[in-house]
Amino acid sequence: MHEAVVDPRLLPVLLSGYTLSLIVPMLTRLLRQMTGWFLALLPLALFVQFLTMVDAVASGQILTANIPWVPSLNVNLSFVVDGWGLFLALVVTGMGALVIIYASSYLQGHPAIGRFYTFILIFMASMLVLVLADNIFLLFIAWELTSIASFFLIGFYHEKEQSQKAALQALLVTGSGGLALLAGFVGLTAVSGTASFQEIQAHSDLILQSPYYLPILALILLGAFSKSAQFPFHFWLPNAMAGPAPVSTYLHSATMVKAGVYLLGRLQPTLGQSSEWFVLVTAVGAVTALLGAWLCWQKTDMKEILAYSTLSALGTLVLLIGLGTELALQTAVLFLLVHALYKGGLFMAVGIIDHETGVRDVRQLGGLWRQMPWTFTAVLLATLSMSGLPPFLGFIGKELMYETALALPRYAQLLTGVLLLTNMLMVTAALILLVRPFFGPPQEAHPHHKTAFNLWLGPVALGGLALLLGLLASTEAIGESLVAPAVSAIAGGELHVHLALWHGLTPMLGLSGLTLLGGVGLFAVHRRLQPGVVRLDTAVRRLGPERWYGWLLDGLLRLAGWFTEKFQNGKLRYYLLYVLATTLLLVGGTLVFRAGIAWEALTLTPLRLPELLLAAVLLAAVGVVVQVESRLTAVAALGVVGYSIAVFYILFSAPDLAMTQFAIETLTVILFVLVLYRLPRFDQFSSRRTRLRDGVVAVFVGLLMAGLTLMAQSVHVRGASALADYFIRSTEPLAQGHNVVNVILVDFRGFDTMVEITVLSVAAIGVYALLKSRTFHLERVRAEQTAVAEQPSPAEPILPQKEAH
Amino acid sequence: MEMIMALIVGTLYAAGVYMIRRRSLVKLIIGLGLLGHASNMLIFSMGNLVRGNPPLLHEGIDLASLADPLPQALILTAIVIGFGAQAFAIVLIRRVYQRVGTDDMDQLIATDKPR
Amino acid sequence: MRSLILTTATRYLLPLMLLFSVFLLFRGHHDPGGGFIGGLVASAAFALHGFAYGMPEARRVLLFDPLKLIGVGLLTAVSSGLVAPIVWGRPFMTTIWSQTSIAALGKLGTPLMFDTGVYTTVIGVTMLIILALAEEDGDQEEEAI
Amino acid sequence: MIPTKFLLILPILVPFLTGILAVLSWHQRNLQRVVSLTGSALLLVVTLILFQRIDRFGPQAVQVGNWQAPFGITLYADLFAAIMLVMAGLLGLAVGLYSLANIDEMRQRLGFYPLYQILLMGVCGSFLAGDIFNLYVWFEVMLIASFVLLALGSERRQLEGAIKYVTLNLMSSAIFLAAAGILYGVAGSLNMADLAMRLRTAPVGVVTTLAMMFLVAFGIKAALFPLFSWLPSAYHTPPTAVSAIFSGLLTKVGVYAIVRVFTLLFVQDQAYTQAILLILAALTMVTGGLGAVSQYHYRRILSFHITSQIGYMVMGLALFTPLALAGAILYIVHNIIAKTNLFLISGITEWVGGSYDLKKLGGLYVRQPLLAGLFLVSALALAGLPPLSGFWAKLTLIKAGLEAQAYLIVGTALLVSLLTLYSMIKIWTQAYWKAQPEMVERPLPPRGIGWVIRFAPVMLLAACTIALGLGAEYFLDVAQTAANQLLNPSLYVETVFGTFVGGMH
Fold it and tell me: Which domain covers residue C27, as residue numbers?
């Protein structure tokens, strides 16, 4: 069993990248061209730091750190360095150092190089957190941060529309996956009761038996697949190559896209023991592997070839993890390293070619081996590893792959076939990359100057490493110290890994030979096949997932436009209709179906003639207001309504109300007359049908309000009229007054009145401001007119002031 | 009488709603006025309707027979607030007419057009 | 088009109406009336004066800028509520009554002060609206669009 | 130490007195500016003290006029109210500072500062009201101040927007007033604590009918679907400072009121009311999200997002678990800060870029990196990206939703957050990334005092967003306490009826 040791180094190590990213702007100003070298010291130091942890981890320790962050939500800064995490941390930091050095030259003189460093450092730090997080939500946070960093890095050339689109696409695809992942993680923690990967792993039975297993699995796979560009989400990755070469190297081949693979590995022991997992992960991986390989050899843009071959490699990795056997996991770990080494080198090398010649199309390149010897060396080493030739590390990876496939209990032939085909196509792609630009007759495009040391250092180092590690594969350093702990972190238990270049005459060796033969064969004829294949591919693509994305996005935009047009058409009467309809539906529905009026409980005051007459006058006046064509008559009728109400107040014991109503009504009428007589006549805008329809709505609203009134009167919950009694009985002794209403207004509820007069004051200020603004506007217009008096016609209407400038 | 009050309340609301849904600015403001009256009458009918017994405390009055003073106080506040809002709205409409030059609400859709 | 009757009547009406408005203000605590109605009556007086003699004249008789009246009125109202917390340590707007009563006014207390604030505010509000409307620029000229 | 009975009224009195002083110094603009800013700063101090008091001693109530509840007017503040008050204080100061540079001379001369203070007063009063009619009155003062602020300056688009804003909000007031009246008719009281007790014995159907009335009335203010249309019509028309304070506070007062009445008063028929709230929440999210996607105008995108995010807050209420309510509260706080800041940033963007139209903007990532960075902080927070404030709010809500097995709303919430991300990226790409369109050549404004006044509040709010994200535990803890207080109506009743002091006077 593993032994957990708290390691105080971890937190500073993991946060150092963020810290450094903050001072980059200052550094770039200070160090100028040396910034890259300086910044590269950090990943280098971290790389060394992680190397020192290798022995401890290999001996069965796991290093941890745990600092509470948001414990209420089970989110903590808890980290675990086990074999799997450490393995990726080494890749992340090692590649990081090389990429930063490379970029310092690749982007030399670019005005935004500082921003590049900032984002790349944020990315690196997030990636480290991602692979070393023990807390599932911490992983998620880092996961999202890498997506964001990727967005900015893909869109580094942000004024190009293509970059903008690619960046958005990558963000939306991985972002959607991220949301699914979040839901899946929340579900996973809910089922297992913990957010620590270590503990979740211990509860795998609980999860497998949970009814929520399948949705959780599906959600998490969505997240992992979209991040690692698996079919059908793969399309964002080739487009992401719009970013500069260091970004493609680092994020989109060596590290970020491996996050999904990492996560699958991390969760394999927890979720992987089901046939659903096996089928889903393996199938998706296999499809992606084949698809990537198939697409890659048809391309002529070197970066595209690399992009699709990366897809293929990612598919292979996912396939291997889906298989889940010990051997498969061992292969996955090793192949991850193999791929990072050769693909990283190739991306950088292609970047150099692009940088120096301005061309990436193999058809326009040739004979570069003489002019770019270092780049040639790098590409040679990398492609040989990619083709799986001994003694490169790639050879060992491929042998293991076949060994894994052949040893499978199920589908052995099928998967061996898939891998064989994939690898053959990889060989072809490798040959295209190596032969066409570097050999043959020199073409028009040629390097403009000597390749800088910073540029070729990375690819040559990586290619050399691919060779060196292949040669050293049989030593303990690789198998026992690196691969074995990683595999055992996934598969659990102690295991031994022995790698060797020579296994004797095995079926695997035969398959390797076959791979090479097939690959070379296809390379020989690939130029003739290409046009046809491209046509076919274009036809298929019309139905492919990238189009789905386009349709989804277009559909969304159209839906949004249509919906907004419908609901936000600018016409107030529709807005009012929505409000009224909602009221009728919610309030009316509830009243009718859940409340009702208790007719028998209504206490009715007997009718009297004067009141009836008054009511008749009031209703008649309302009728006039609604029907009349003249606005002055309408205003007068409205006044009659108001005065009738005042009389009601008199009749029903409310003298204060009556006085106020009279006064206010008079004021309102005066205001109406003063203001409205300058407005146009009542115009009849709407058709008869509209009016009828509005009338129906209005009647329903009236019925509803009348119903509510009666409903209220039919309920007698009130402790009789406790408040009224209190006011009536306390007014004299406690408030020293006799007019209860007035005492309520100035004392019991004087606070309301204070606010009320504030409302009034604000309204008056509003009236004043509205009217005065006209004076201001007119003054301005007059000033403008005198200013342009000489010109017969002002060309432009003068804009009103927008904001204070 | 309660039924009559309910009828009045309902009619006022119906008329108010009908008027604010016209396209004419002037009708809109008249509709708002009607709605204000409607709410006040609604609150008024929430107190028991008492005839001729205003809540004024004079010698020898039967305290139990007085009208509920609280709805009255509430309506007073509501009337005043309603007046403030209405005064503002009236002038606002006038300013809209001055600046836009139309009385037709359906013409006032510039702010809702996506740009 | 000032009518002689209106101008003559207003000369006597203004002081009378103002007096009546103050009367309404003071009696509000016991009988129908109060600061609000009082304020409206007072504004009506000023408005009538304005119709008779022109708005500048009304503004002159008013003595204060309506905005100032609003401010002072609100300040009076809120100060009446602040007496209790500041002087007696009681919650905001707790009423305080004088022990002795003054002829014709009855007992003095913070509610009266409050109502005076209401009265002043209402005058300010009404006059601000009326004066602004009366002094508005004509419709003839076009504003900038 | 200020006694609590005075402390509770101060968030109302400070802006009120400031507003009055601003009215009295009407013609001295510089004095007004000093008064207004001082008042805003004081309000923040007062609300912070109040928050700290309530955080330590629990909910507090005070009876205005010393009249025993339920006869007088009660002011009540629990932790939720205190949080909202602090938000009002914070925004009051930030936007108040910004307005010094943003509001032109004409608007200052027409009373911007008094109106601004009265608006703050109305907002604070609404948060403190413990009486349903008093709440109505606060709503009105807030509303009328917002009417005037919206129309102030009388530009054509302002007036057009104002017509819709005024009409629909007056509708809301009419419904609110009717509902308050009927509530009095049914239960015979206005004091919310008293009502909470009385409504327990009322017929459930009647109470639910009332609940729906309040939902419609407050729903209009909160801009719930399909009652939201006034918001996108109006919020983009006034000066930025006005948009910003509106977006930060006004709709949230509506949400606050909904939360208040649905946790205190209308808890009888929860299955029914929660289902309706849940449906409205989902529709609101989607509508706002779609609206934002369809727009190409900086402030209109932001306006539609106000709506969409109200949906999340209502979702938290509808789920009605402590965690969900805590999530809603956290969401409100996060959203107030981030959204206001985005509006302020939109103003600066217009200031340096000359337009709110995304098609006419561009190149600001290169020319104004600080501004672009500040935008990113708020925009990414709004989209719920970790580790910024919005992520924690979203995570809490999603967790609560999954625990309550409300999968549909969780799915909707997640999808809409994608729409948010999309529209924020749209702004980013168009206004900041894209090259500057050639037709607009503007010299950059100088880095004078105007620059400082604009950027200082934006930086302050951005810092708050970051702090909210990194210190999420503290804020979540507070939100959970607040949620537990909300879910315990008897605490409210006890606080209101237990604090009467001094007997008869």
Answer: 4-134
Q: Is A80 left (phi over 0), alpha (psi -120 to 50) or beta?
A: beta
Work out whether strand C106-109 and strand C97-102 pair parallel, antiparallel, or are unpaired: antiparallel
The chains found to touch B (3+ Cβ pairs under 8 angstroms) are A, C, D
Q: In whole angstroms, what is the distance from residue A455 CA to residue A446 CA?
A: 17
State the Cα–Cα distance between residues D81 and D128, nearest whole angstrom.
Answer: 7
Q: Is residue C141 part of a domain?
A: no
In this complex, which of B30, B40, B54 lies closest to A634 when CB atoms are compared? B30
Tell me how far apart the alpha carbons of residues A666 and A784 are, in angstroms, rounded to a whole number. 41
Round to whole Å and give the CA distance between A682 and D348: 44
- Collapsing DSSP to helix, strand or coil, A133 comes out as strand
Q: DSSP states of C91-141 as a string?
A: PTT---EEEEEETTTEEEEHHHHHHHHHHHHHHHHHHHHHHHHHTPPPSSS
**What is the pLDDT at residue A84?**
93
Q: Give the CA count within 13 Å in the CB-facing half-sphere of D416.
A: 31
Integer Cα distance of B85 and B96 in angstroms: 16
Chain mean pLDDT for chain A = 88
Residue B64 gets which letter from DSSP?
Answer: G
Give the separation between CA A100 and CA A122, rounded to whole angstroms: 13
The distance of D12 to chain C (nearest Cα, Å) reads 11
Query: Can you tell me which residue has the tokens 């980290």?
Result: A79
The number of domains in chain C is 1
**Is residue A761 less than 8 Å (CB to CB) from chain D?**
yes
The H or E element that residue A61 is part of is strand A61-70
Check whether A253 has a pLDDT greater than 90: no
Q: Where are the alpha helices (DSSP H) in D61-155?
A: 79-102, 105-109, 112-128, 132-151
Which residues does chain B have within 8 Å of residue A729's beta carbon, measured at their own beta carbons?
63
Structure-token match 């600066």, residue found:
D348
Residues D288, D294, D299: CA angle, nearest 5 degrees: 70
Query: Mean of the pLDDT values across residues D118-133?
Result: 96
Rounded to two decimals, the ipTM of the complex is 0.95
Nearest CA in chain D to A736: D505
Which member of A667, A678, A738 has the closest CB to residue C30?
A738
- Average pLDDT by stretches of 10, chain B with 115 residues: 90 94 87 93 86 81 83 93 93 86 78 68
> Could you tell me which chains touch chain A, where touching means 3 or more CB pairs under 8 A?
B, C, D
Which of C36, C125, C143 shows the shortest C-beta gap to B99? C143
A702 with A586: CB under 8 angstroms?
Answer: no
Are D184 and B70 in contact (CB < 8 Å)? yes
pLDDT at D439 over 70: no
For residues B107 and D495, give the distance between their C-alpha atoms in angstroms, rounded to a whole number.
53
Please give the Cα distance from B9 to D31 (Å, whole number): 49
Q: Which amino acid is at D401?
A: G
Q: Does domain A569-717 have CATH number 3.30.420?
A: no
How far apart CA A785 and CA A789 sit, in angstroms, is: 6
**CB of A557 within 8 Å of any CB in chain D?**
yes
Whether A753 and C114 lie within 8 Å, measured CB to CB: yes
User: What residue of B is the nearest CA neighbor of A658?
Assistant: B76
Computed over its alpha carbons, how large is the radius of gyration of chain A?
Answer: 39
List beta partners, residue B56. A739
Contact flag B80-A641 (C-beta cutoff 8 Å): no
**In chain B, domain spans:** 2-49+68-101
* Res. A1: pLDDT tops 60: no
Instruction: Check C129 against B98: CB less than 8 A apart.
Output: no
Q: Which of D481, D260, D402 is nearest to A190 (CA)?
A: D402
Q: Are A656 and C107 a contacting pair at CB < 8 A?
A: no
What CATH class has B2-49+68-101?
mainly alpha
Whether A646 and B64 have beta carbons less than 8 Å apart is answered as no
Numbered ranges of CATH 1.20.120 in chain A? 569-717
